[in-house]
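Ticket 4471: requesting a sanity check on a complex prediction with heme C. Repro inputs:
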Amino acid sequence: MRRILGALLFVLLTGIIIISSCERHTFLVETVDPVDSVYFGAVIQPLLEKKCSACHGGSKDPDLRADKSYESLVTGGYVTLPAEESRLYRKVVSSGHSAYTLPEEKLKILYWIAQGAKNNK
Ligand code: HEC
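Returned structure tokens:
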């Protein structure tokens, strides 16, 4: 009887250890804080260059090359409020568009627009 209890206790403890170590991993997923500033220069511009400029490299609007993207987005009317309705965000979440962005990248773009689409570093 004692042996069975011991075995049960062992199973229970390993279960707890496994479950809690899994939980720890979920915290490693990158999250985006809507209150923290999302900087155009440090975050958005490199993202657009990496994920978008292959197609939006000058011949297709908006021009999303590093030295052109800010002006192109603002003058083209792509970054308007409310951010969810902006042409840039709607395109980024549209399934009909061939761009691929991670969920946290979509959020960064959304928050940057919501924070006023500033040309901040
Ligand atoms: C594989 C090529 C490709 C990539 C990569 C790509 N796009 Fe596009 N994009 C297109 C094409 C083609 C169109 C025009 C057709 C359409 O609207 O889907 C377009 C249209 C758009 C439009 C709408 C233009 C307008 O005048 O309304 C926006 C905004 C846009 N893309 C943003 C982005 C962003 C931001 C990224 C990167 C996350 C991106 N695109 C990556 C091909 C691409």
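Notes from triage: Residues 24-28 have pLDDT under 50 and may be disordered. Leaving this open until the requester confirms.
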